[in-house]
Amino acid sequence: MFKLNLKIALRNLWKNKTSSFINVIGLAIGLSACLMLLLYVSYEWNFDKQAKNWKNVYTAMTNVPGEGNKIAGTFNGTTTALGPLLKQNLPEVKYVARMDYGKKSLIANGQNSFKKDSKFAEPNILKMYDYEFISGDAKTALSNPLSVVLTESTAKTLFGTADVLNKSVRYQDKENLTITGVIKDLPENSSNRFDFLMPWSFYEILDPSVKDLNWNNYSFVTMVMLNPDANIDLVNRKVEALVKANTPQTPQSQPHFLYQASKLHLFGKFENGQPVGGNIEQIWLFMGLAFGILLIACINFMNMATAKSEKRAKEVGIKKTIGANRTSLIFQFLTESMVLTLVAVVLAIALLEICLPAFNGLLSINLGISYFNAASWIGILGIVVSTGLIAGSYPAFYLSSFNPIQTLKRKIKSRGILTVSLRQVLVIGQFCFAIILIISTLVIYRQIQYIKNKPVGFDVNTLVEIPQDGELKTKFELFKTEMLKSGAVASMYQSSVSLSHHGRNFMDMKWDGMTKPENTVMFNQVATSYDFIKTNGIKLLQGRDFSKTFASDTSAVMVSASAVKVFGYKNPIGKKVTIFGDNAYIIGVFDDYVWDSPYKSNNPQVVFLNQKQTGTITMRLNNSNNLQSNIETITRITKAFNPAYPTEITFINSLYQEKYKSEKTLGILSNLFGGLAIFVSCLGLFGLVAYSAEQRTKEFGVRKVLGASVANLMQLLSFSFIKMIIIAIIIAVPISYFAMGKWLNNFEFHTEISWWIIPVAALGTLSMALITVSFQAYKTAKANPVDALKYE
Amino acid sequence: MIELKNIEKYYATKGVKHYVLRHVSTSIKQGEFVSIMGPSGAGKSTLLNILGMLEEPTYGSYEFMGEDVTTLNERKRIELYRNHIGFVFQAYHLIDEMTVYENIEAPLLYKKIGGSERKSRIADLLDRFNIVAKKDLFPNQLSGGQQQLVGIARALAAQPSIILADEPTGNLQSAQAEEIMNLFQKLNKEEGITIIQVTHSEKNAQYGNRILHIADGVIKEDLVV
Lengths: 792, 225
Description:
The complex is a heterodimer of chains A (about 800) and B (about 220).
Chain A: H1 2-15, H2 17-45, E1 57-65, E2 71-75, H3 82-89, E3 93-100, E4 103-109, E5 112-121, H4 125-128, E6 133-136, E7 147-151, H5 152-159, E8 168-171, E9 175-183, E10 196-199, H6 200-206, H7 208-211, E11 220-226, H8 232-246, E12 256-260, H9 263-266, E13 270-271, E14 274-275, H10 280-307, H11 309-321, H12 326-363, H13 374-400, H14 404-408, H15 417-453, E15 463-467, H16 471-474, H17 476-486, E16 489-495, E17 505-506, E18 509-511, E19 523-528, H18 532-536, E20 540-543, E21 556-560, H19 561-567, E22 576-579, E23 582-590, E24 605-609, E25 616-621, H20 627-641, E26 650-651, H21 652-658, H22 661-695, H23 697-705, H24 710-744, H25 757-782, H26 785-789
Parallel strand pairs in A: 5-10, 7-9, 19-24, 21-23
Antiparallel strand pairs in A: 1-2, 1-11, 1-12, 3-11, 4-5, 4-8, 6-9, 7-10, 8-9, 13-14, 15-25, 15-26, 16-25, 17-19, 18-22, 20-23, 21-24, 22-23
Helix pairs in contact in A: 1-12, 2-10, 2-12, 2-22, 10-13, 10-15, 10-22, 12-13, 15-22, 15-24, 15-25, 17-20, 22-25, 24-25
Chain B: E1 2-13, E2 16-28, E3 33-37, H1 44-51, E4 59-64, E5 67-68, H2 74-83, E6 85-88, H3 100-110, H4 115-128, H5 144-157, E7 162-166, H6 174-191, E8 194-198, H7 202-205, E9 210-215, E10 218-224
Parallel strand pairs in B: 3-8, 3-9, 6-7, 7-8
Antiparallel strand pairs in B: 1-2, 1-4, 4-5, 9-10
């Protein structure tokens, strides 16, 4: 029986090529979109979950107190003192490993030198994350201070082979380290990635402040592995009490808690110290998109199948009279939809393989089908089976319920009120979804444009920066002179952070007329050298830039306009503020510029002169030379100062482009999937119209003989479909208006939903549908009436 | 075998009853070959449909093989279709997507008959109806007469005790019609299969041994040939 069903299913597919094509293509697109997004979701979902013990690995988090007993922010930086305190006093703690945040540093094998992601960590990190050692021993790899663990690809870049145990590499052109282990490259979906790992004990040698167990410097990460049976709530209460008892308490004291490390990626947003989601929201959105498209394709299948009911009804009738029961018929129809889904899934996987590189390029990630593990394959199988069931069940139950005599007498009410209205509801649902996606796409696009067009506060073009490494730290003045002399650079300065940076926040700030005993407003600090404003071109509202002509500028600050607002100074120039206990006088006020997120107003900023805090060198290129030669000159001079280091010149405008990345991703995805949703919906509409036209050929023939024009007939056929689209528009517009309004409110700086977006989306959809419908309608209406009438 | 008592069938439209059958009572015994005749709209097809349990009478009782079938549930009815009743239609109603062989096989599959038995029965039927060469063709590749032969072969596959035929030769040329009618006669005489056919043609009715004349829903005449 099953074999026969299968055969008949295949013959049916072959016979009705148009509808099979529509169904298979629709389902294949839906499934591949679904698989692609699921790939992305499983990539994100498995972030930091590769280790065997990932469930027990926690990160110590710090709450930053804000105004009125609220918590202003939560981050994963901790002090050096926290880790040892936890290890000594909490029996639940199995291992503690302190790390730094990691940075790019120089690693060299002879002349072969590269800047790679480096990290310092305590040896216990190897017990938390079971890195796969190709060579070397995890137990002893980090015990010697002058040792290093390389990833396989780092070893290959440096030595051309992974067989490098006990060889030596040079770190930052300063120290020789012995390679004590080579590990497999870390998976891309892990947060603590590095190219080489060095022991904490080496960090203590390099930077004595690391050795000191302090409670002030929150630049370190503390990883904690708890016993599997530990109760995290209980542990967190103990942590809080422990820290309180062991540190001096001030209003600025920052309480700690432990948070599952793997959660940080998707649930990393905190409000008032409580997790409130994060990237997970995007994951839900993508899941919704994926299943939405799949559902649209399933609806196509259902509509096509029920539209064909008149044809199939005869078959049902005959089968019933020769002894088929309902179960066997339902089984037959489900077999058909399963066969179709299976064909579609093969096509979908092929489509996925073809599109994945482009998709990866769009989102700049690196997904592969290999991210699907055994469990996900079972999931895919589940999706296929449930797709087949969802798509097939309604037609199967509907068709198999036919009464044989009605169907054989051809009295089937295929245009009864109920059946048609369900089909209409489904079509309306499809187009609602499509229209919502179009409107969302337009709004997201407008928002990105709005933020992009919002001035950042200075001219980002012709600005470049290089990291201040090696000799550039000590010989900056000489470097500056040579650069300016070469003519490639018009002006330059060094600063502790790049122009585009995340907060380097602090609160130890006092000013005249402060109402509270302690400041609770976060300030952002930048230490710089001369020519700060001259180079970057940020608008100076009052006062002046730092200048060598004023010796007193060592105790001078420039502040942003928003900082002046916090101070409440009417005439800020010359007023006193106290930073970290030192007095400083305001010499200049500059306009706020975008340095962190372009979507919200950034913290107030203070800029002071401190040439010891090195970090980045920013340069304004000389416009009169061409770019190429400027870059070459900079590279040449930098190389002369720092032969061991590769030169990395970054254009500031590319740094600012980076800031739009997540919204751009959202835009791309909604564009892509909105387009697909429309396409698949139109495909379904085409099928329905084609079928409706086929059913009504006789009627059309008669009408033509009676004198109806082509236009009359087209109108007749199109109107019922266009009506559905209009209803869909009426439903979708308020929903998307509301939803996108809510989305926009997430941003402090946001555009309004322009009135024209709605007619554009509506007319766009309508005309797409109209083209689809009228193509078929025209074909039918033009047909010779005799062809239609000569049957029967 | 068949016992009809006071069968009534009407359709109510806007409160007005349109009678199709009125006070139909008759009995048909095993082995009879009955032809139902009458003008268009007389109710003969409705009667046949009621006999085939495709339609339910509005009133009256219908016993099939001693069992009251007016209140039969779907499962029991399908059992009857599988084991006792074979249908032959004017428009053949073969399943377009199946080959001749598969069309004949279908009722056997529903009846869950084993593979070897199935094969021998189909081979036998193909042989008897001289359509062995056509077994892999699809219905639309056959002539009307050939299609109807397949239809009859399909009806016979499950070895029913009764065949219900609704104008089996209505779409056929006279030569083909004669062939089909001869076949029915032979089945009736040699295998004792009860046959009830609806027909317009006086000539076809003569192949049977009993004629029911129906007009305006009433049996006017019950003739033995």
